Structure formats: C-alpha cells, structure tokens
Amino acid sequence: MLSCKKAASLIDKKVEVKLSWKENIQLTMHKSMCNACTAYEKQTKLIDKILYTHIHSDSETNIPVIKNKELQKQIITKL
Amino acid sequence: MDTTNANATIKCWVELYSDQLYTWAYYKISDRETAEDLVQEVFLAAVHSFKNFEGKSDPKTWLLSILKNKIADHFRKVYRTNANNTVSFNQFFGSNEDWISDQRPQQWKEDEEQHLLDNPDFKKTLTHCLEKLPANWKASIVLKFIEEKDSNEICQELQIAPTNYWQILHRSKLQLRKCLELNWFKK
C-alpha cells in the first residue's frame, strides 16, 4: 500500500511525466481508500487551472488597471 | 516605414497600452520597479523591431508577446541566481509518511475557477501565496505557465533534472494549497 506522501507526489508527477503502469494502479488503489489524497488531487488540479489563467491569460478582465503616469512619461522621454 | 513614423506610432501606443502592460506585469512579478523596467524595455524593443510588426496583429497582442518573453527571461535569471533550496517534505508528512494532521487536505467550498479569478480579493490572496514561495520555486511555476512549453524544454533551459523539476512543482503546490486553504477556502 502506497503512503500518502508517495501518493501525493505521484498526483503531481502525473501532470509532468507519464506514470508507469504499476504507479497508476497503486495510485488508483490508494485514492479509493483515502479521502485526503482524493481531495488533494482535486485541489492541485484546480490550482493548476488557476495558475494557468492567472499567469497566462492575456487580459485581466475584471482587474482594475493600475495607472502609472510617471512610467508613461519616462518611456516617452527615452524613445 | 521610416523611424520618425515608428516613433510617433509607438509613443501613441505608450499612451494607450502602458498602464495595461504594467498592470499585467505587476501581477506576475509583484515588484514595482522590475515591472516598470520590463514595460520600458518592451517599448524600446518595439521601436527596434517595428518593421517586423507590419500591422499583422493587434498592437496590444504584439506588445504583450514581447512582454511575456521579457518576463520569462526575468524568471530564468531569478531561477539561476537563487541558491537551490533543498526540497523537503517534512512539514507536510510525518515519519509514517501520512499527512500531518493540520496539513491534511480539507474539503473546500465549491467555487467556479473563472469566478475566482474575476475576484480581485482572490487574486490578491493568490499573489500573496505565490510571493511566499522561495524565489526560484516561484520562477519555475511562472515559467511553466507563461510560455506554452513542455517540461523537457523548461528543464533544458534551466539545466535541471526532470525529477528535480517536478519535485519543486510538487513542493510548491503543497505549500500553495495550504496557503490558499488557510487564507481563502476555509474562511
């Protein structure tokens, strides 16, 4: 039986690297008996989606634009 | 197009887009000065490569793609100049390799992810939690998401072994998860 430490690490490893057949089975078995690791998987996937949108997204739709007049002036003089 | 023309157009873009670019950079970097420097570099780079632009895309999209590259460069530098912290999991798992009780994931209240990111307060919490990561870990996270590269490519750029790389991501996500749980999902 896999420990929680190992199971949680496989959950995040799976996103980056293909797991072996054995690792996959061990992980599935562990999750079927462990609420904490099942919750961990759900949450780490949500965090991935959140990070992707936070870091990658082209528009900050509802985020107020920070005005920086000083910077604007500074760039224009340098051009 | 001659240079006077390029200069005039770009000056106009500074007025139109610099605040948006600055806001975008600031939310990724959380450092005022660095964000300002990068935005300034974007416009200087735009003057130099103005002939590549040729009005093919929307100016904002073009400037944003230059900014993304600058931010990625910045985080590659951060990753390389920060000493390697040892990746330890003792804070999360006991000697029996079970979750330490206050680290054990709790059920979170359900929230639509888009809804979450439209919420400026959540965005603040997320930025705060990212800031608490060691600089080189945060750099690996940003690099993973800002450029759509696969992990092999990122490992090569950073000269890091793949196992090390996903261990860093795993360790960072354990910490982020706990931080978000404490400061958002449990409230």
The major beta sheet of chain B can be summarized as: none
Main beta sheet of chain A: strand number and arrangement? none
Radius of gyration of chain A: 21 Å
Structural class of chain A: mainly alpha
| Highest-level CATH class of the largest domain in chain B | Mainly Alpha
β-strand amount of chain A: under 5%
Look at the structure and name the CATH superfamily of the largest domain in chain B: Winged helix-like DNA-binding domain superfamily/Winged helix DNA-binding domain
- pLDDT averaged residue by residue of chain A: 90
Following the backbone from N to C, one meets helices and strands of chain B in this order, namely: HHHHHHHHH
Q: State the helical fraction of chain A.
A: over 70%
CATH topology title of the largest domain in chain B: Arc Repressor Mutant, subunit A
What's the quaternary structure here?
Answer: heterodimer
Distance between the termini of chain A: 64 Å
Number of helices of chain A: 4
Mean pLDDT over the full residue set of chain B: 88
Number of helices of chain B: 9
Number of domains of chain B: 2
Number of strands of chain A: 0
The second-level CATH architecture of the largest domain in chain B is Orthogonal Bundle
Poorly predicted ranges of chain A: none
Largest interface: A-B, 46 and 61 residues
Please provide a written account of the structure.
The complex is a heterodimer of chains A (79) and B (187). Chain A is an all-alpha fold and 79 residues long. In chain A, 73% of the residues lie in helices and 0% in strands. Chain A has 4 helices and no strands. Chain A has helices at residues 4-16, 21-33, 35-56, 69-78. In chain A, helix 1 packs across helix 2 (21-33) and helix 2 (21-33) crosses helix 3 (35-56). Chain B is elongated, with a radius of gyration of 20 Å. In chain B, 71% of the residues lie in helices and 0% in strands. Chain B has 187 residues and is an all-alpha fold. Chain B folds into 2 domains: 3-81, Rna Polymerase Sigma Factor, Chain: A (Orthogonal Bundle); 101-185, Winged helix-like DNA-binding domain superfamily/Winged helix DNA-binding domain (Arc Repressor Mutant, subunit A). The chains are: A mainly alpha (79), B mainly alpha (187). Chains A and B meet through helix 1, helix 3 and helix 4 of A and helix 1, helix 2, helix 5, helix 6 and helix 7 of B.
